[in-house]
Amino acid sequence: MFYSKKSIILDKNLKLMVSTRHPVLYAASEHLFTAGGKRFRPSLVLLVSKALNDNIILASQKRLAEITEIIHTASLVHDDILDDCSTRRGVNTVHNTFSVKVAVLAGDYLFAQSSWYLANLDNLEVVQNISKVISDFAEGEIRQGLILFDTGFTINEYIEKSFYKTASLIAASCQGAAMLNGVDLEISKRLYNYGKHLGLAFQIIDDILDLVGSVEFLGKSPGSDLKNGNLTAPILFSVTENDKISHLIYREFSKKNDIQLAIDLINNSGGILKAKDMASEHVEAALLSIDNLQSSESKKLLQKVAKYTIERLY
């Protein structure tokens, strides 16, 4: 999105960073990078870096941006296996193209590569900060796996799970860019909070789009969260307004048209609006977190990114 001018360089560097002597493993790792993506996370790292250092990006911050995308991509490979997704970014998923075994190894390999490059940043604080994200991913997946089709799952638990699965990486990478710039602790924490709230808003909107988006827009079939029993904010809000949705969830969408019926019921309830309002609150919190940053074009873009998160619905 905001990284488009340098996306060719990023893509080239990503492929160089995942090079391996095993051709199948390399092909699997390269598969998603070739498919592209929004490059949302590395864009944030670069914007934070420029906002803190008079439009200058350090070499270590450029590397952190690339590491962030590798970690994100590794998590997608594993997510697709767990959710049994057939497509990602408009192309076949790694486990569909190769095999589940190769996909697991490819995801592990990408995590390992990101850890190696992270260690070479030679900044212990940043290493500790970003390394925790990988354990957060596992925590998020475990939490999600324990509550599938569970209508007793609360909104607070949903937010915690969303932090581990999405917001943790965005928060840590924004803070990591600040740490590499040597800023004081208060500014570092503010940028962490910016990334945290932005990440939560981003996930909530993604969960709404899973119910209202098209195949062309999503790059996969809508309703995948429902099908897998992953109850997201718009679903949880809708359950309290329409008992029929709970009934469909309880029988795990066992009948042919259950998924489409559930999507229609959710779209006609107030759950979508409530989820959007919650996302808007997190966007406002993200904007407040960077309010004290010195005025610059990069700060304006960070604000624009936050506002764009909600605008993706339109």
- Determine and state the CATH class: Mainly Alpha
Instruction: Work out the strand percent.
Output: under 5%
Gyration radius (Cα, Å) is 19 Å
Largest sheet: 2 strands, antiparallel
Helix content: over 70%
Number of helices: 16
Identify the CATH homologous superfamily.
Farnesyl Diphosphate Synthase
**What structural category characterises the helix and strand content?**
mainly alpha
The CA-CA distance between the termini, in Å, is: 16 Å
Globular, elongated, flat, extended or rod-shaped: what is the shape? globular
Provide mean pLDDT, rounded. Answer: 86
Q: Could you say what the CATH topology is called?
A: Farnesyl Diphosphate Synthase
H and E string: HHHHEEHHHHHHHHHHHH
How many strands? 2
Which CATH architecture?
Orthogonal Bundle
Overall number of domains: 1
Strands of the biggest beta sheet: in what spatial order? 1-2
Protein name: Prenyl transferase
InterPro entries: Isoprenoid_synthase_dom_sf, Polyprenyl_synt, Polyprenyl_synt_CS
Keywords: Isoprene biosynthesis, Magnesium, Metal-binding, Plastid, Transferase
Cofactor: Mg(2+)
Summarize this structure as a short list of keywords or feature phrases:
Farnesyl Diphosphate Synthase; Prenyl transferase; 314 residues; 73% helix; transferase; mainly alpha; 2 strands; two-stranded antiparallel ribbon
Explain what this protein looks like in three dimensions:
The structure is a single chain. With 314 residues, this protein is mainly alpha-helical. The protein has a single domain (4-311), classed as Farnesyl Diphosphate Synthase. It has 16 helices and 2 strands. Strands 1-2 form a two-stranded antiparallel sheet. It starts with 6 loop residues before the first helix and ends with a helix. This is Prenyl transferase. One of its GO terms (molecular function) is metal ion binding. Its cofactor is Mg(2+). InterPro entries: Isoprenoid_synthase_dom_sf, Polyprenyl_synt, Polyprenyl_synt_CS.
